[in-house]
Amino acid sequence: MAAFAIVLTVLLFLVATLLVGVILLQESKGGGLAALGGTSAESAIGARTPLRKVTVYLLVIFISVIIILGMVLKRTVGVSSFKPKTGTGTGTGSNPGDQRPILPPENEGDF
């Protein structure tokens, strides 16, 4: 499963690099951020030029790989890895009730 996650990560990097390149190759319409409001005659789904079609396909692949990679990593690493780490404090750690969260030192002068 870890090898599959590595392959997906490499694929994600390649697709992201291609996506940035294809976006930068597109000609500017001069609309700036106003084009986000849907003022353009062509939408992203109804793209007419081949470069825009490639952009949409790469975007769909990019989002799909992110979702699949998230599911693979959740299964491989486990949900518990996203929880904050806890320290044993003064206890031995054998009893879960002895565990306390790890906190930074309380030196008020040091930042």
Number of helices: 2
Distance between the termini: 41 Å
Oligomer: single chain
The SSE string, one letter per element, is HHEE
Q: Can you give the helix content as a percent range?
A: 40-55%
In the predicted model, the low-confidence regions spanning at least 5 consecutive residues are none
Query: Structural class, from secondary structure content?
Result: mainly alpha
Biggest sheet statistics: 2 strands, antiparallel
Report the C-alpha radius of gyration, rounded: 23 Å
Percent of sequence in beta strands: under 5%
Compute the average pLDDT.
Answer: 74
Number of domains: 1
Can you tell me the overall shape?
elongated
Biggest sheet: strand arrangement: 1-2
Total number of strands: 2
Please write out the topology.
Blueprint: H1 2-25, H2 50-77, E1 86-87, E2 100-101
Antiparallel strand pairs: 1-2
